[in-house]
Amino acid sequence: MLEADFVIIGAGSAGSAMAYRLSEDGKYSVIVIEFGGSDIGPLIQMPSALSIPLNMSLYDWGFASEPEPHLGGRVLATPRGKVIGGSSSINGMVYVRGHARDFDHWAEQGAAGWGFADVLPYFKRMEDANGGENGWRGHGGPLTVQRGSRTNPLYGAFVEAGRQAGFELTDDYNGAKQEGFGPMEQTIRGGRRWSAASAYLRPALRRKNVSLVKGFARRVIVENQRATGVEIETRKRIQVVKARREVILAASSINSPKILMLSGIGPAEHLREYGIQVIADRPGVGRNLQDHMELYIQQESTQPITLNSVLNPF
Questions:
Q1: What is the pLDDT of residues 285-297, one digit of tens each?
Q2: Alpha carbon distance 168, 180 (integer Å)
Q3: Residue 248 β-bridge partners
Q4: Where are the alpha helices (DSSP H) in 66-223?
Q5: Which of 68, 152, 154, 283 lies at a C-alpha separation of 20 to 30 Å from 229?
Q6: Residue 63 in 3-state DSSP?
Q7: Closest among 200, 32, 201 to 126, alpha carbons compared
């Protein structure tokens, strides 16, 4: 029987870090449940291939938004990683901390312990930053953060164009001054994508008290108002992975609320529509998601100095 102290749903950014930290002192056993496959191969590990996994059903859940009323009813692609490392294995490798005011706003709204001063030590502990502002950045952590060489003159021209347009500049947007044009930071190490799987999950799996189970998480088992395990589908069979202490949902901002609702935790009226027994009426589950938009702007270079010539498959 599959059983551990902690059962984590999802081997993405959060799940990988949780597996690493919970197993660190060797006191507790950890099982990580992941439906996606391996992240080995150039399409994920080679940084310049970053746009390819985003469009592959092998690596991406293929989610889409509902028609957006403020965007003329358009439906937006909403990629989520379906692979070891989760979305950190298919994203653009851009490293950006959440804005300090966002964290402080959460704390003001009642999320005690989530102010920026509270989370900054954890950001510093997490990273091994190559450069950045003293006092604000971490060194020696598991997540490598680098800056590109920026030898191509287009990089400097882009920043200068921002200045000329009236925007501010910053030497470190992950430091004290978060607004402004400046050098981008990347989760890349030694020319390879440095995902949460590389930084956290693989080191954790080398420990005897951590194991990875391939399976599709169907719901959390709740007994006497306590989560006791996770029902999964694996090899066309339904199994239960039992949790002696806790079940941790780390299945993304989309799959986590879905699993909660399938487990009976969510808006009661909505759950009853689908014949799901209500364990806890929580109206906010599955609502109020905010995400950043991505906008592509292409311009023609007046000189033959772009990377376009080296972006062919070979």
A1: 999 998 888 888 8
A2: 5
A3: 8
A4: 100-108, 116-126, 153-164, 196, 202-205
A5: 283
A6: strand
A7: 200
Q: Which stretches within the chain are classed as H helix?
A: 13-22, 42-45, 100-108, 116-126, 153-164, 196, 202-205, 252-262, 268-273
Neighbour-count burial for 276-312, b at 16+ CB within 10 Å, e otherwise: beebeebeebbeeeeeeeeeeeeeeeeeeeeeeeeee
| CA–CA dist 234, 4 (Å, integer) | 18
Helix (H, G, I), strand (E, B) or coil at 72: coil
Give per-residue pLDDT as tens, 176-231: 999 999 999 999 999 999 999 999 999 999 999 999 999 999 999 999 999 999 99
Tokens for 188, please give them: 């890349």
What are the structure tokens assigned to 246, written together?
């806790």
Classified as helix, coil or strand, 295 is coil
- Give the total residue count for the chain: 314
Distance CA(134)–CA(120), nearest Å, equals 13
